Amino acid sequence: MSFSKWIGASIGWSFGGPIGAIIGLALGSVVDAMANGKDVEAATRQRRRVNYETQRHQPQTQSGDFEVSLLILASIVIKADGKQDQRELDFVRQQFVGMYGKEQANHAFRLFKEINKQQHISTRQVCLQIKQMMQHASRLQLLHFLFGIAKADGFVTDSELSQIHTIAGYLGISHVDYESIKAMFYENADNAYKILEIDKSATNDDIKKAYRKMAKKYHPDKVVHLGEAHQKGAEEKFRQVQEAYEKLQKERGF
């Protein structure tokens, strides 16, 4: 699949507003790079093809909207501590290869590198567009992925944590949901309680109710509209909820 056909098939509502402006700049750079060694007429045809493929789609949430949102937010988090660790960049690429296969991952990472070059990205404007158009379950999946990026080099810095917290707020993710996903990336005696969004004073019945609630919230079917690739990502959150519940079962003996 050519780059223009991939990007056209991938973008819905995200090719508008502040996200559209960011992607527009990145696409221009990608097409210019692809034109290296081609004549001007061929490069012009490629630009027109990209514009046509992207603009002909209806503004509905689809897998590509998640991918584009993910690339932009990943760029913001990676640059939060003032440096770009190669392990974090490798994590992004590996995740995309695992989800989409090598060819599509190469397209996505090419776009990511151009997004990453942009110096002035408004976190607030991007997140507000995502909040308006994307379902809550998909936004939770975005947050989970961002923690994975930040943790790829072994630890989450204070600046990365602050940036992810800011993003969560703009995305309309509650404090308890934020703490639940954050707990999935830290080793702490109380993490099982935090993942289930309860405290240590909870009764065994409270724990059972919390597990049912969280299992429903993080069930992979919640992101079925994003395609099989993102369901696999959601399965990781679902698994961690199950492990948190089993840990408390074992500790309390119920």
Automatic annotation (TrEMBL):
The keyword Signal does not apply. Signal peptide: none annotated. Residues 191-253 form the J domain. InterPro entries: DjlA_DnaK_co-chaperone (IPR050817), DjlA_N (IPR007791), DnaJ_domain (IPR001623), J_dom_sf (IPR036869), TerB-like (IPR029024). The chain crosses the membrane at residues 6-28. Gene3D superfamilies: DnaJ domain, TerB-like. Keywords: Membrane, Transmembrane, Transmembrane helix. This is J domain-containing protein. It comes from Snuella lapsa. The lineage of its organism: Bacteria, Pseudomonadati, Bacteroidota, Flavobacteriia, Flavobacteriales.
